[in-house]
């Protein structure tokens, strides 16, 4: 196990009715005037908006609003939010929604405290030294941004999707009521579960030896998603299944599963280019790319794929032929994704084979290789894209 520092200060209020404490929590963490940040009309239709407004009103907290966040959040709305927050003198940002809303809120929080262009943080030209405090009311179990130090934003000028990282971006609190996810369409639920599962894969496929504790944590989260996702798709109002998936989403990405080990985010970055160019739902894009990445690297580096097959998917170990065991694990993963309604080809997500050179150019704009488990070059990534592209 490698040396590590780990700091995860977010306070979680979890369960039915948890949103009623939102105003109280804002007060507890020093907020006196709030920027309420959210997406489209879904939170109004499902009643979440009204419940949050009631909690703010009860706590006598003034607020200003900025809606309009879309999946794969855009830089333009972040600029608007920074301006609005400064103009209104807000000292706290409340994100009500899923990962896109929370990521946008984090970018605004950092931008308010910075004299330059907030995209400097995402272009790796500056580090985040300060940010407004953030709270979240989660409505989608997927990205894990409610407990992470990460934010991902699409630069509208270049159509490049990049991430920033700082413990200053970790929410001060997050309200998690699994009931808020019950009205999600089946596709969105499945895409979120896929995102959660693959967040853990990024930690699991590691070259670091002797990491048994995080191996077992990763396997537990992945097996939970395998068990609970079909249950919740059969019965969208299954509170217990929703609750387990929601908490798994947080654990998958606050980095408790990744400390002390090298992580591989190659397939994640490969997918980012798809979601930036075609506005693909992130979990759906990952469902296309990650199995393709697995099949491309497995024979080059099969070691982690064997326990992935045996411990996560229950594949019997073929001692004389570990590659066969590994491939059967990947097959079961692909079958699971198909079972829950996820795509597997470019044609299903609107991507085009002729755009592969552009996707590769964007990915390798400032680097020669991608990933750590197996280092990939431009030719490798081109082959991964081509393996799922339609003729």
Would you mind describing this structure in some detail?
With 391 residues, the protein is α/β, with parallel strands linked by helices. Helices cover 48% and strands 10% of the residues. It has helices spanning 22-28, 42-45, 48-58, 75-88, 99-112, 119-122, 186-204, 212-234, 239-253, 266-278, 282-297, 305-312, 322-339, 346-349, 356-363, 378-388, and strands spanning 11-14, 34-38, 63-66, 92-97, 134-138, 150-155, 160-165, 173-176. Strands 1-8-5-4-2-3 form a 6-stranded parallel β-sheet, sandwiched between helices. The chain has a two-stranded antiparallel sheet with strand order 6-7. A hairpin with a 4-residue loop joins strand 6 (150-155) and strand 7 (160-165). Helix 7 (186-204) packs parallel to helix 9, helix 10 crosses helix 11 (282-297) and helix 11 (282-297) crosses helix 16 (378-388).
């Amino acid at each position: 196990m490698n040396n590590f520092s780990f700091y995860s200060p977010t306070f979680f209020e979890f369960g039915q009715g948890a949103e009623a404490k939102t105003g109280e929590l804002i007060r507890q963490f020093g907020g006196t005037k709030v920027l309420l940040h959210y997406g489209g009309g879904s939170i109004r239709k499902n009643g979440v908006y009204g419940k949050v407004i009631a909690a703010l009103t009860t706590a006598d907290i003034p607020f200003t609003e900025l809606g309009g966040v879309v999946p794969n959040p855009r830089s333009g709305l972040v600029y608007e939010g920074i301006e609005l927050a400064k103009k209104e003198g807000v000292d706290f940002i409340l994100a009500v929604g899923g990962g896109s809303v929370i990521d946008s809120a984090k970018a605004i929080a950092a931008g308010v405290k910075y004299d330059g262009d907030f995209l400097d943080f995402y272009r790796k030209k500056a580090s985040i030294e300060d940010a407004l405090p953030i709270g979240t009311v989660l409505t989608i179990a997927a990205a894990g941004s409610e407990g992470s130090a990460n934010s991902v934003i699409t630069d509208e000028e270049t159509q490049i999707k990049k991430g920033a990282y700082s413990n200053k971006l970790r929410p001060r609190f997050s309200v998690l009521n699994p009931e808020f996810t019950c009205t999600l369409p089946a596709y969105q639920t499945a895409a979120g579960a896929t995102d959660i599962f693959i967040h853990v894969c990024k930690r699991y496929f590691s070259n670091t030896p002797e990491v048994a504790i995080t191996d077992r944590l990763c396997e537990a989260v992945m097996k939970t998603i395998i068990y609970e996702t079909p249950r919740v798709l059969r019965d969208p109002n299954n509170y217990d299944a929703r609750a387990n998936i929601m908490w798994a989403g947080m654990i998958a990405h606050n980095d408790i599963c990744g400390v002390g080990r090298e992580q591989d985010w190659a397939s994640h970055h490969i997918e980012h280019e798809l979601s930036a160019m075609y506005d693909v739902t992130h979990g759906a894009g990952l469902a296309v790319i990650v199995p393709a990445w697995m099949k491309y690297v497995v024979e080059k580096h099969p070691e982690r794929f064997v326990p992935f097959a045996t411990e996560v998917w229950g594949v019997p170990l073929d001692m004389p032929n570990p590659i066969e065991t590994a491939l059967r694990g990947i097959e079961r993963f692909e079958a699971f994704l198909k079972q829950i309604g996820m795509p597997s080809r470019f044609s299903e997500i609107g991507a085009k084979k002729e755009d592969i050179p552009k996707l590769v150019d964007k990915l390798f704009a400032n680097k020669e290789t991608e990933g750590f488990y197996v280092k990939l070059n431009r030719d490798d990534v081109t082959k991964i894209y081509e393996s799922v592209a339609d003729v």
